[in-house]
Write a structure and sequence with these properties.
This protein is α+β, with helices and mostly antiparallel strands. It has three helices and four strands, in the order αααββββ. The protein has a four-stranded antiparallel sheet, with helices on one face. Strand 3 and strand 4 form a beta hairpin.
C-alpha cells in the first residue's frame, strides 16, 4: 500500500516549463537566429552578382558577334574574296576607325571598333541597348598573328572589356583571321 500511495502522490506534480526555462529558451533561440541571419546576410547582398555576370557575358558576346561579322580590313573586298596583303594593291591598313567613332552605323571592318568606349553600351546602329544603362564597354583591336606563329597581319585580336555596375570587370577576346 505504501508504494501505491507514493506513486499517486508523484502524479500530482506539474510537468510544464518554468518561467526561467522559457526565458532561457527564447534567449538561446534569438542568439541562434542572429547567427543564422548574419551568416546569410552576405549572400543576400551579393545575390544580384550572378545576374550582372550573365548580363555582362551577354553584352560581351553581342559586341564580339557584331565585330566579327565585319570585314577583316578596310582593304579587304566585300565578301573577303581576296585577303589584304595577298596582292601589292591590297595592303592591310593601320588599325583604327576610318569612318570616325561617331558614325558607328558606317563601321565596315573589324578595326573600326578599336578604341570605342560605350557607356551606356550601344547596338550596331549606335542606339543605347535597353537594360544596360549602368554598364560600360570598351573595345581594342590589335594585330596578333605572331600569337600563333603567323605573319603579324594575318590575325587580329578583338578584346571587349565590360564593366558592370557592381564594379566587376569582364574581359572577352576573340581572334579574327585574314581569310
Amino acid at each position: 500500500m505504501l508504494g501505491l500511495t507514493q506513486t499517486l502522490a508523484g502524479q500530482g506534480k506539474s510537468k510544464g516549463y518554468s518561467l526561467i526555462e522559457l526565458i532561457i529558451t527564447i534567449v538561446a533561440t534569438s542568439l541562434v537566429m542572429i547567427l543564422f541571419y548574419s551568416t546569410f546576410a552576405d549572400n543576400q547582398l551579393k545575390s544580384a552578382s550572378p545576374l550582372l555576370q550573365t548580363k555582362a557575358a551577354e553584352l560581351g558576346h553581342a559586341y564580339l558577334e557584331e565585330i566579327s561579322l565585319k570585314r577583316f580590313d578596310e582593304a579587304s573586298p566585300i565578301g573577303n574574296a581576296l585577303r589584304c596583303n595577298q596582292a601589292a594593291t591590297l595592303l592591310c591598313g593601320n588599325i583604327g576607325a576610318e569612318e570616325g567613332a561617331v558614325n558607328r552605323h558606317l563601321f565596315d571592318d573589324v578595326d573600326d571598333y578599336d578604341g570605342i568606349i560605350d557607356s551606356p553600351p550601344k547596338d550596331a546602329l549606335g542606339l543605347d541597348r535597353p537594360g544596360f544603362n549602368n554598364f560600360s564597354v570598351s573595345v581594342s583591336v590589335s594585330y596578333a598573328g605572331t600569337d600563333f606563329g603567323l605573319a603579324l597581319q594575318d590575325l587580329k585580336k578583338i578584346t571587349v572589356t565590360v564593366n558592370s555596375p557592381d564594379g566587376g570587370v569582364f574581359v572577352f577576346s576573340q581572334y579574327r583571321g585574314n581569310f
